[in-house]
Amino acid sequence: MLFTSRDRLSQRDFGLAIFLFTVSVLFVGGLIAYVIVRSNLAKTYEPTALVIPSALWLSTVLLVLGSFSIHRALFFVRQEKQQQFRNCLNLTFLLGGAFFVIQTLGLIHVLRQHSEVLLVLDQAKNVYHYPSSYGVLFSFVLLHALHFVVAFGILGFVIYKAYLYQYDHEYHWGVHACSIVWHFLGVVWVGMLLLFCLVG
User: Fold this and answer.
1) 129: helix, coil or strand?
2) Whole-angstrom distance, CA of residue 67 vs CA of residue 21
3) Average pLDDT of each block of 10 consecutive residues along the chain (200 residues)?
4) First to last CA, the chain
């Protein structure tokens, strides 16, 4: 054998770390660029206020609950409690589905707000205003949603393998990786919303 099972696990951990690092650079770089551009424009123009839709805050609660439930799933599989393990995975899947639906509604609301702001600015022809941050917020939320769809697909595959009893207290790397990705996306999501609230 070229690689032992421990070597393969190390390779998987390394691949997961590279993936998370890449996504981190993408989001952090984009957000820093947004803050710089927003700050520079604010010196010349009067900013248009940004209001985060309540649907996005509600989806945040669901994402946090999902993060807790998948953490419990990881705990139960390590304890070899298969039924509780699968129950927590199923709950995470339901919370993830609800998050995606509500986030989609939030995206539609953000896009509508962005269109309304642009329409008002076009009608007023006010040179002291510039297009709001709703378009940027929409882009970042959409980007996060695309990554979440990938994580949601991974969760579905983990659930499938869980019902085939392919995870136990000795081998549960898939659950571990899915948990890390879910926590990571949760941190990115909360940080992103807080930044938009502070910067506007």
Assistant:
1) strand
2) 20
3) 46 83 84 75 62 84 93 94 94 93 83 65 51 64 81 92 91 90 89 76
4) 56
Q: Is the overall model pTM greater than 0.85, yes or no?
A: no
Ramachandran angles phi, psi of 67, nearest 5°: -65, -40
User: What distance in Å separates the CA atoms of residue 115 and residue 131, rounded to the nearest whole number?
Assistant: 10
What pLDDT shows up at residue 108? Answer: 81
pLDDT value for 179: 92
Backbone angles phi, psi at 46, to 5 degrees: -85, 120
Query: Would you say the C-alpha torsion 188, 62, 196, 110 has a positive or negative sign?
Result: positive
Task: Give the gyration radius of the chain's Cα atoms.
Answer: 20
Predicted local confidence at residue 190, as pLDDT: 87
Tokens (6 digits) for 180:
């890390």
List of residues 6+ apart from 182 with CB closer than 8 A: 66, 67, 70, 92, 151, 155
Residue 86 CA, distance from chain mean position = 23
Q: Which residues contact 118 (CB under 8 A, 6 or more apart)?
A: 131
**Contact of 168 with 81, CB cutoff 8 Å:** no
Cβ distance 143 to 25 under 8 Å?
Answer: no
